[in-house]
UniProtKB/TrEMBL annotation:
Keywords: ATP-binding, Ligase, Nucleotide-binding, Purine biosynthesis. The lineage of its organism: Bacteria, Pseudomonadati, Pseudomonadota, Gammaproteobacteria, Lysobacterales. HAMAP family: PurK. InterPro entries: ATP-grasp, ATP-grasp_carboxylate-amine, ATP_grasp_subdomain_1, PreATP-grasp_dom_sf, PurK, PurK_C, PurT/PurK_preATP-grasp, Rudment_hybrid_motif. ATP binds at residues 99, 139, 144-150, 178-181, 186, 209, 262-263. It comes from Luteimonas padinae. GO terms for molecular function: 5-(carboxyamino)imidazole ribonucleotide synthase activity. This is N5-carboxyaminoimidazole ribonucleotide synthase. Residues 103-292 form the ATP-grasp domain. It comes from the Bacteria. The keyword Lyase does not apply.
Length: 380
């Protein structure tokens, strides 16, 4: 019996454990919170990731390690990887923990990115705004997620407020100023690479964010084959450069037929949740297959799927369950403003059928505005 250790016990670890049960796997999860929702399905070691004792307890009970979030302290990841096989490797993790290192790698691989400048002081910020122009976005280089640690700069006069909001973090992890991309679409490539180097991608996903948080994903995205091939090529180049093993997502902005890379998430990704019911093999199952050195499953889509995130609190489940292709995922978390507490996936054989199902669910739950951009895309 193999026990997979997951650093981080949120919904990603929870869905990984659920996907691993049919493979006969056991799981152990480490998290800083005793309330971590993966703990409802796997033994939970509670402790700070830098706490050597807790980490040693976690390491002693597992055969292989992976993680459900990218902010594992580098030293802890390194320590663990010297004791048990760990995938993805600490270098892949370290690169994607730092927006500057990540963008530097994108550049080295010829992957286009939005304009950016590293910022360490208020004077740097003024110079960076002058160079990139407005609007632009100041971001912490490290530890950001769901749009946290970001400040949108609309005019040069916003520099003071931006520094006030994020300047304290210039000393700890550094800041980066990015040009604002007036994109037409946001896309993501969810990809998997096995221990033997086999590489697969699911069909491209189109994503809609609200206030920096993912709201809806549609797959397969309706994009032309040449654009998809370019996106997949970028993902493959990154996977090979990092000797990556497991699932990752590459977030892209699409503008005038051009693709600009936003960030790489070194883990299973929210924009890949649709693969649970919408693809032959889910991202969670394939991540486990990859890290365990098992054959990868097919990634083809089963019709059209749309994932809707539930943020703050769970809505009523009946309208989704009443749909022929409706699927419900409650993460078992306490409601809290801004928190991802669950998602639904609607699946249909045709775009028209999916659009109708989304309209019914949107109307029944009072979520018309959440489904509207997806319905518009499906009807285009
Ligand atoms: P997560 O890891 O949860 O995806 P994050 O906190 O790392 O989020 P980003 O992915 O950098 O944040 O940004 C969140 C969203 O904000 C993006 O998906 C996009 O909608 C918007 N955004 C971020 N950077 C830019 C940019 N340079 N131009 C335009 N929009 C942007
Ligand atoms: Mg991110
Ligand atoms: Mg992102």
């Amino acid at each position: 019996m193999t026990t997979v250790g997951i650093l981080g016990g949120g919904q990603l670890a929870r869905m990984m454990a659920l996907a691993g049960a049919p493979l006969g796997l056991r799981f152990s999860v480490m998290d800083t919170s005793a309330e971590a929702c993966a703990g409802q399905f796997a033994p939970l070691v509670v402790g700070d990731y830098r706490d050597g004792e807790a980490l040693a307890e976690f390491a002693s009970g597992i055969d292989i390690a992976t993680f459900d979030f990218e902010n594992v302290p580098a030293g802890s990841a390194q320590w663990l990887s010297e004791r048990v096989p760990m995938f993805p490797n600490p270098r892949a993790l370290g690169t994607s923990q730092d927006r500057l290192a990540e963008k530097t790698l994108f550049g080295e691989l010829g992957i286009p990115v939005p304009g950016y400048v590293a910022v360490d002081t208020p004077a740097d910020l003024d110079a960076a705004i002058a160079r990139l122009g407005v609007p632009c976005i100041l971001k912490t280089r490290r530890l950001g997620y769901d749009g946290k640690g970001q400040f949108r700069i609309r005019t040069a006069g916003d520099a003071g407020a931006a520094w006030e909001a994020l300047g304290a973090q210039a000393a700890s992890g550094g800041l980066i100023l990015e040009a604002f991309v007036p994109f037409e679409r946001e896309l993501s490539v969810v990809a998997v690479r096995g221990r033997d180097g086999e590489f697969r991608t699911w069909p491209l996903t189109e994503n809609w964010h609200v206030d920096g948080v993912l709201s809806a994903s549609l797959a397969p995205a309706n994009v032309d084959a040449a654009l998809e091939a370019r996106a997949v090529g970028h993902a493959r180049a990154l996977a090979e450069a990092l000797d990556y093993v497991g699932v990752f997502a590459l977030e892209l902005f699409c503008r005038d037929g051009e693709l600009l890379a936003n960030e790489l998430a070194p883990r299973v990704h929210n924009s890949g949740h649709w693969t649970i019911e919408g693809a032959e093999t889910s991202q969670f199952a394939n991540h486990l297959r990859a890290v365990l050195g098992l054959p990868l499953g097919a990634t083809r889509a089963l019709g059209q799927a749309c994932m809707l995130n539930w943020i703050g609190e769970m809505p009523q489940l009946e309208p989704v369950l009443a749909e022929a292709g409706g699927h419900w995922h409650d993460y078992g978390k306490a409601p809290r403003e801004g928190r991802k507490v669950g998602h639904a996936t609607l699946r249909a054989d045709t775009s028209g059928g999916l659009a109708e199902a989304l309209e019914r669910v949107g109307a029944a739950l009072g979520r018309e505005s959440q489904v509207a951009p997806v319905v518009a895309r499906l009807r285009q």
